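Researcher: We plan to redesign the surface later, but first we want a full-length starting point. Tokens attached.
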């Protein structure tokens, strides 16, 4: 009987061996993946910003999941054809829509070693070095923002979750109870990212009053209007609670007057949150530091390394001026975790975020930072700022109506032939955007500003350089002339 059991177990061990390939098989798997990534990288500079295909990737579902699997070559071929090919290409230079993504090669390799070693980065006891690495990066970001030594934070999956953590912290610090929600007021502009509304709802604050603060003609928060709104609300028996400022709105790239807003937040005892998911890493540049002056006075902020540091998607940082506030709103305990509750030199990420087990995200940020250093990041970010300014000039010269000079790296503009009604010009700009996307060499997106269908060009992909911006101007001029109307 005992022998039979042992035989059965050994048989299962042999059958599951495919899950733990030996050196030779590892080489074959690895070579197939590396060859694929090299095929991609060799042509990434000429890769179109957007690729429309008839099947829209549906072929991926035709490769079945079977008991015995398929060859790595077949899997990779399917991946290339149906996943890599269709849709937007964030790592390509021509991706100028939304907020472009990056995809640093160093980070890909960082993810690889993080996955192979699979260190547990949630709790200090389990992965002391991993947790130190993560906290070191949080500290590096906090120093960049200008927060004091008592600040804390965590590396989340993106800006949305990072914003959620900040809002939950603000709720707990102001001891908002459900009975207070309908009187609690949040101040934000129409440019504020929708992840804030969503975070409020998820945090149980769907009933809070959202006071939309008017903006100036550059889409920045009107500080006088904010001051008036807060005092009026207070006089009306409401509870001014949270002020959300943009340090680079997603839509137009507008940076709110952060320093002046900090004065009001301090005077009115409101929690001050700065959403710098898009713009935060411009703090590495001189222009960015000037634009974002006052961010160091906020209570919490969010920066997305998968935007301004060109990391692959899945990395956002929340920072809170007072680390204790973040811990107080996220801490937990559980009987089965008792062994981990030993004296720790470092805060455990699991104590300051909603996550317990998580991707060891730090490596993808740490590897490029320690190996390349900060200078290439500084240079790239300054280049993007200048490219946006340059495009703003060039596209005006090409006869387009332009929005304000960019605060950061987003330019808004539209084709406005003379004598056209608003409806007509909106239709023409939509057509122009479609024509540009069908062409595919560059990928732009659009927004509505004061009822006007407006095109936007966002420079933040690390491979976008001068030649792409020149090409973008050329394509836009060409397509606009083809559509006509002037
Ligand atoms: C991108 C962005 C977010 C949301 O971040 P995700 O990483 O996409 O979840 C929030 N706020 C601003 C200003 C952003 O640009």
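Model: Full-length starting sequence:
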């Amino acid at each position: 009987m005992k022998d039979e059991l042992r035989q059965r177990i050994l048989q299962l061990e042999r059958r599951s061996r495919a899950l733990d390939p030996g050196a030779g098989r590892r080489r074959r798997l690895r070579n197939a993946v590396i060859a694929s990534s090299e095929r991609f990288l060799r042509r990434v500079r000429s890769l179109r910003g957007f690729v429309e295909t008839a099947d829209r990737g549906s072929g991926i579902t035709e490769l079945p999941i079977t008991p015995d699997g398929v060859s790595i070559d077949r899997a990779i071929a399917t991946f290339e054809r149906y996943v890599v090919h269709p849709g937007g290409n964030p790592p390509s230079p021509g991706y100028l829509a939304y907020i472009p993504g990056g995809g640093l090669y160093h980070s890909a390799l960082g993810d690889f070693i993080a996955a192979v070693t699979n260190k547990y980065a949630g709790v200090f006891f389990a992965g002391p070095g991993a947790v130190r690495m993560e906290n070191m990066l949080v500290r590096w970001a906090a120093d960049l923002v200008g927060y004091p030594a008592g600040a804390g934070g965590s590396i989340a999956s993106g800006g949305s979750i990072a914003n959620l953590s900040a809002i939950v912290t603000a709720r707990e610090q102001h001891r908002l109870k459900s009975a207070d929600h309908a009187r609690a007021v949040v101040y934000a502009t129409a440019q504020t990212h929708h992840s804030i509304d969503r975070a409020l709802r998820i945090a149980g604050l769907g009933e809070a009053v959202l006071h939309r603060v008017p903006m100036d003609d550059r889409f920045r928060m009107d500080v006088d209007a904010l001051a008036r709104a807060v005092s009026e609300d207070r006089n009306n028996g409401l509870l001014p609670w949270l002020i959300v400022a943009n340090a680079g709105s997603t839509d137009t790239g507008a940076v709110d007057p952060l320093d002046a807003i900090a004065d009001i937040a301090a005077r009115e005892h409101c929690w001050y949150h700065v959403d710098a998911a898009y713009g935060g890493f411009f703090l590495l540049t001189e222009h960015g530091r000037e634009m974002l002056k006052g961010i160091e006075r906020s209570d919490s902020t969010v920066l997305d390394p998968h935007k301004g540091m060109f990391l692959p998607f899945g990395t956002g940082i929340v920072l809170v001026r007072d680390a204790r506030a973040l811990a107080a709103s996220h801490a937990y305990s559980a009987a089965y975790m008792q062994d981990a509750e030993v004296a720790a030199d470092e805060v455990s990420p699991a104590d300051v975020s909603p996550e317990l087990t998580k991707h060891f995200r730090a490596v993808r940020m740490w590897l490029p930072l320690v190996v390349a250093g900060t200078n290439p990041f500084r240079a790239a970010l300054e280049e993007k700022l200048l490219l946006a300014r340059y495009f703003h000039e060039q596209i005006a010269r090409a006869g387009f109506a332009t929005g304000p000079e960019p605060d950061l790296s987003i330019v808004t503009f539209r084709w406005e032939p003379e004598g056209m009604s608003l409806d007509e010009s909106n239709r023409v700009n939509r057509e122009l955007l479609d024509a540009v996307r069908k062409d595919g060499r560059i990928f732009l997106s659009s927004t509505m500003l004061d009822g006007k269908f407006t095109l936007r060009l966002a420079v933040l992909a690390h491979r976008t350089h001068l030649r792409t911006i020149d090409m973008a101007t050329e394509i836009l001029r060409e397509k606009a002339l083809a559509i006509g109307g002037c």
